[in-house]
Specification:
Order of helices and strands of chain A: EEEEEEEEEEE
Distance between the termini of chain B: 36 Å
Strand content of chain B: over 45%
Shape of chain A: globular
Largest sheet of chain A: 6 strands, mixed
Order of helices and strands of chain B: EEEEEEEEEEE
Number of strands of chain A: 11
Oligomer: heterodimer
Radius of gyration of chain A: 13 Å
Structural class of chain B: mainly beta
Largest sheet of chain B: 7 strands, mixed
């Protein structure tokens, strides 16, 4: 079955610097890759997604890149702010299945 | 506004009791999911349903039960057979067959055994 590996598990960056979270997936049939942000005590919220026919997508300070050949995808947050502190989950979805497989999450700390 | 509502936000269970967590959505989504999240951990799938009156076990279904009598509702019962039920429970939904959509999550129920 599909497996999604996410690194690092914890990441601390200085406010204003960039943060990068990386994920790999195992099933080449995966074609949809969402990213979720979870604040303390709340449910995850979709922040950006990318489909397999696209290599990069950007939304203000957030960008996601996808390398289908290597089965890698990454989340990039630029000019980090205190409100970016949260847990981030990457995920992958296969065309033949509604289920989304999640990575184990990255706890991002933005240092003042 | 459309959304997915979980209730209650906090729930306390005594040893040996069954408790039911509510999940309701008005998004007209076909598929619904229940996840368990332990402190500092990822999301583990308990049960999911892709259509009314049908559901499948996820990775950690033991000690849990569900029903899907209505499209809008997918309640989760934590039975006394679940030996370590203290966790944060998340419900999610998505349109069936829509491979280019993510899940919409509820705000979660925190269950504590007392």
């Amino acid at each position: 079955g599909e497996n999604v590996e996410q690194h690092p598990s914890t990441l601390s960056v200085q406010e204003g610097d960039s943060a990068v979270i990386k994920c790999t997936y195992s099933d080449s049939a995966s074609n949809y890759f969402p990213w979720y942000k979870q604040e303390l005590g709340k449910g995850p919220q979709l922040i950006i997604d990318i489909r397999s026919n696209v290599g990069e997508k950007k939304d203000q300070r957030i960008a996601v890149t996808l390398n289908k050949t290597a089965k890698h995808f990454s989340l990039h947050i630029t000019e980090t702010q205190p409100e970016d502190s949260a847990v981030y989950f990457c995920a992958a979805r296969m065309n033949r299945d509604d289920k989304i497989i999640f990575g184990k999450g990255t706890r991002l700390h933005i240092l003042p | 506004d459309g959304g997915i509502t979980q209730s209650p936000k906090y729930l306390f269970r005594k040893e040996g009791q069954n408790v039911t967590l509510s999940c309701e959505q008005n998004l007209n989504h076909d598929a619904m999911y229940w996840y368990r999240q332990d402190p500092g951990q990822g999301l583990r799938l308990i049960y999911y349903s892709q259509i009314v009156n049908d559901f499948q076990k996820g990775d950690i279904a033991e000690g849990y039960s569900v029903s899907r009598e209505k499209k809008e509702s997918f309640p989760l019962t934590v039975t006394s057979a679940q030996k370590n039920p203290t966790a944060f429970y998340l419900c999610a939904s998505t349109p069936a067959g829509s491979v280019n959509y993510g899940y919409t999550f509820g705000s979660g129920t925190r269950l504590t055994v007392v």
